Amino acid sequence: MPDPAISILLPFRDEAAFLPECLASIRAQTESDWELVAVDDGSADESAAIVERWADDDPRVRLLRPGRVGLVAALNLAIAEARAPLAARMDADDVMLPDRLRAQREWMDAHPGAALCGTQVELFPPEEVRGGYLEYVRWQNECVEPGQIAANLYVESPFAHPSVMARTEVLRAAGGYADGPFPEDYELWLRLHAGGHRMGKVPRVLLRWRERGARTSRTDARYARDAFDRLRADYLARDPRLHAGREVVVWGAGRRSRLRARLAMERGVAPSAWIDIDPDKIGHRVWGLPVHAPEWLAERDPRPFVLVYVNNHGARGLISARLGEMGYAVGEDWLGVG
């Protein structure tokens, strides 16, 4: 049997309630040249039996049962076993729309220099979806082009993990997923970006992303806010744009912004000033650094590199417009930091 075009990587554990719908969505794909590498991470329910029945009916389905090894090890086992040049992630509780694999394969073929692409997603079921997550997905769905993704990578993770398709050889060369006190998917995107890889997105909703209280990202400390903040600071501090001899300043002198900026400062980022719109702060010093109004940036020559530590998406949009008016280009002269 020839190697398939796409290997679908599906780690699972105790997902019997959702696997039938997930597997049916895979079988319903308009792209048929795939294999499913399903890794049972020590399920105690009927999950493995469900996948085994599908494997009996469809030779494209392969079930691996290494025991309880953890998500990262299960993912890396799937990468090692993948026979296709493209690897598509999938979670057992999510649903692919019928054109997902075809559209991503076409995107990867059209962008041979890209390492990875995601898709836009929709949250479901509606009764479980809350406002904050809706706003995150709205932002994520607007990050589509490789340039947008690179410029926003320090804001949030720009991909829904189960929507991603990557080149298998790139994943293997990068060493697969890393295990540590951080979100394994976001760490991989940051690592690929640091290695010079381009990443994009198919501008279509092609995955239904399930929201539920028991989701690992809501219950595991690796996906807590401070874990994201530390991980971002680790990679930001090594970004060559902050070590090119340019002055670095931080936009955002509020307490929360300062505390997040401190993580990067502890790792060697040395800003010379804060930027803030609060008249009570402007002209004073915070942590020994002067606080300036935004207009100061227009007068500065040479132009400093600005780290925008403002979390609100709406406020960040206003800051982006303000910086653009002063001639600052995102990615070249400033970056948003979540």
Q: What does this protein look like?
A:
- This protein has 338 residues and is an alpha/beta fold.
- The protein is built from 13 helices and 14 strands.
- It has helices at 19-27, 47-57, 71-81, 100-110, 131-142, 146-152, 168-173, 184-194, 216-219, 225-236, 255-266, 295-299, 313-325, and strands at residues 6-12, 34-40, 61-64, 86-89, 95-96, 114-124, 165-167, 198-210, 248-251, 273-275, 285-286, 289-292, 305-308, 334-336.
- Strands 3-2-1-4-7-6-8-5 form an 8-stranded mixed sheet, with helices on both faces. Strands 11-12-10-9-13-14 form a 6-stranded mixed sheet.
- The N and C termini lie far apart (47 Å).
- The model has no long low-confidence stretch (mean pLDDT 96).
Write the layout of secondary structure elements.
Elements (H helix, E strand, L loop, with lengths): L5 E7 L6 H9 L6 E7 L6 H11 L3 E4 L6 H11 L4 E4 L5 E2 L3 H11 L3 E11 L6 H12 L3 H7 L12 E3 H6 L10 H11 L3 E13 L5 H4 L5 H12 L11 E4 L3 H12 L6 E3 L9 E2 L2 E4 L2 H5 L5 E4 L4 H13 L8 E3 L2
Helix pairs in contact: 8-10, 10-11
Please describe the structure with a list of short key phrases separated by commas or semicolons.
338 residues; alpha/beta; eight-stranded mixed β-sheet; six-stranded mixed β-sheet; 13 helices; 14 strands
CA-CA gap between termini: 47 Å
Order of helices and strands: EHEHEHEEHEHHEHHEHHEHEEEHEHE
Inertia-based shape: elongated
What fraction strand?
15-25%
Task: Give the C-alpha Rg.
Answer: 22 Å
